[in-house]
Design brief:
The chain is α+β, with helices and mostly antiparallel strands and about 575 residues long. The protein is about 65% helix and about 10% strand.
Length: about 575
């Protein structure tokens, strides 16, 4: 329980630290924002309550007896008109005070940023600062609003105020106790505090409603009008408290940014999330040896083995690979165990989709898709294979890409990919080409660019009709493994895609004599490209490179490809 209370205490202390800063630098603006926010809540409450009273009046012939005596003399029709006008006025007052809160928050934020005298630290820092200040002022207003609601209920209906206060205290105590003894609940509370607090708030409102009903049936209740007001105040109280808990968590989550923005002597030094959680506890040697031993026991079907584990690099962040050599009674085996950090689960699922759906893939054999304490782990069998070094990877890259082009993607896989990602011809848009032309201006060949724009739809149609091929992007040293007969296999498929055949091929390769020989080899393995013209494959490669240049703002290089694209797209 101590750790949970300590966590709550840290969040509250941070809120107090912000309060001191804001009240010292912008006291009047903060006070104005808080007061107007409280008034806005009460105006909104009145604005929604009064229309209900109007409906009740319309359903009766006289003014009901539970209305105060001062309204009895006005008459039903006069009271309907009066309450309708008052409802509109309260709603307009709610909008006005809300606007004042926004203006005060913006002004206070500007003054705080000017006072701290900081350079631009990160993107959208003005927006982050404004939202942080608005969230703080809203929290302060919530404390004031809930306190006023409880005081009003204590004055007119003390029983319901006591019930609400006891329920809030009991919820806080129980949440702290359960979170201290249950790691799963503590984790859920950290990730889904908003939903938990809303659930508790809803239960609190139901408890208040049940008490009011039972009090009217069995006890000595106040007037019906007081009960209705108490019920509405209870609903607003629990609603605001649910938001308050989430906002306090949000303020503490932005501590690094807000401290760097508002406090003169602090800099922004937020640690990457992946360094403090995720798979990092699993790479500690003692913990690593335990889960690897458990994994090997499942794979080899025995606990009698000796193993040697060595880390190796594939050049991707938040992915760790281990080369594990195993000796058993049946022989010697080698495996690669690839761990994906929690922020790379999408990569793990993307790779698993391909490896489980595509046949005849030039991939290292997958042995197991596993999970280690919620972290994705893929196990590959590299027995008899040798990892390619940097020079060998470069030498084998074109050969491997050509080999991959020989693999026809499964129809189900194509359908799944097409529903999830746009294809090359769908990503090629006219606006990007126009921007390139406008930026280069006199440096661009206007006629070539215009021809490209005119023929763009024909080019898209040509690309759409091309056979599709699997693409393995960003192949780095450590990812290719070589067999004894010189055949290469890939161990990382985290960024695979499906594109028209020829896409992602290096442009210089298109004009080498060996390119035509490679096409012949591919045609012998894929019947769908037997009658395909080489210039169409060149077109796919050129358009792919053209798109990449535009995405990276290398407009001069993109323009240099225009003439080659027009030549490849020229009708036969």
């Amino acid at each position: 329980m101590t750790s949970t209370v300590y966590s709550v205490g840290r969040a509250l202390r941070w809120s107090v630290t912000l309060s001191r800063k804001f009240m010292r630098v912008v006291p009047w603006l903060t006070l104005l924002a808080v007061v107007c926010s409280i008034l806005s809540q009460f105006f909104m409450l009145a604005g929604f309550l009064l229309p209900l009273k109007v409906v009740l009046l319309l359903g009766s012939e006289t003014v009901p007896v539970y209305f105060p005596s001062v309204f009895q003399d006005v008459g039903r029709d006069g009271l309907v008109v009066f309450l309708s006008i008052a409802s509109v006025c309260f709603y307009l007052a709610h909008l006005l005070t809300g606007k004042i809160v926004d203006v005060a928050a913006t002004s206070a934020c500007k003054k705080l940023l000017n006072r701290s005298k900081k350079l631009a630290i990160f993107e959208n820092q003005q927006e982050i600062a404004s939202k942080g200040y608005a969230r703080y002022s809203q929290n302060l207003a919530t404390v004031g609003f809930v306190s006023l609601c409880l005081m009003v209920m204590a004055w007119f209906y003390s029983d319901i105020a006591i019930v609400i206060a006891l329920y809030i205290g009991l919820c806080v105590l129980l949440v702290c106790i359960v979170a201290s003894f249950s790691n799963s609940f503590h984790s859920k509370l950290s990730k889904e505090l908003g939903s938990v607090s809303r659930l508790l708030g809803s239960l609190g409102f139901l408890l208040s409603f049940a008490y009011i009903v039972l009090n009217h049936l069995l006890g000595s209740p106040p007037g019906i009008l007081v009960s209705v007001v108490a019920l509405l105040l209870a609903r607003q109280t629990f609603g605001r408290l649910a938001t308050f808990a989430k906002d306090i968590q949000g303020l503490y989550g932005q501590k690094a940014q807000l401290r760097a923005l508002f406090f003169h002597g602090h800099t922004f030094s937020q640690k990457p999330i992946s360094r403090s959680q995720g798979f990092w506890p699993l790479i500690v040697p003692r913990a690593r040896d335990v889960w690897i031993a458990e994994m090997l026991a499942e794979i080899v079907g025995s606990e009698r083995f000796e193993s040697d584990t060595q880390w190796f690099d594939i050049g991707l962040p938040d992915i760790v690979c281990y080369h594990v050599k195993v000796s058993t009674d049946d022989g010697r085996f080698e495996y690669v165990m690839k761990l994906f950090n929690s922020n790379r689960s999408a990569w793990a699922k993307h790779e698993a989709t391909l490896l489980s759906s595509q046949r005849s893939l030039p991939s290292v054999q997958i042995v197991k898709f596993a999970s280690v304490e919620g972290i994705h782990c893929h196990v590959f069998d590299v027995t008899g294979l040798k990892r390619c070094g940097k020079k060998e990877t470069i030498d084998q890259l074109v050969k491997f890409r050509t080999q991959l082009m020989s693999t026809s993607p499964q129809n189900d896989l194509v359908s799944l990919y097409a529903r999830s990602h746009p294809m090359l011809w769908q990503r090629l848009d006219q606006q990007s080409i126009i921007r390139m032309r406008d930026l280069l201006d006199r440096l661009a060949d206007f006629d070539d660019v215009e021809q490209l724009l005119i023929r763009l739809n024909d080019i898209k149609e040509t690309l759409r009709l091309l056979p599709l091929a699997l693409i393995a992007q960003d192949i780095r040293p450590g990812m290719l493994w070589k067999s004894g007969n010189g055949e290469c296999f890939l161990i990382n498929w985290t960024r695979w895609s499906i594109e028209p055949i020829g896409a992602k091929l290096p442009v210089p390769v298109l004009y080498e004599p060996s390119f035509m020989e490679s096409l012949g080899d591919i045609a012998s393995k894929r019947a769908d490209i037997n009658e395909l013209e080489p210039r169409n494959i060149q077109l796919a490669a050129l358009i792919s490179e053209f798109e990449q240049c535009l995405q990276r703002a290398r407009y001069a290089e993109a323009h240099a490809l225009v003439s080659k694209i027009l030549l490849a797209a020229k009708p036969a």
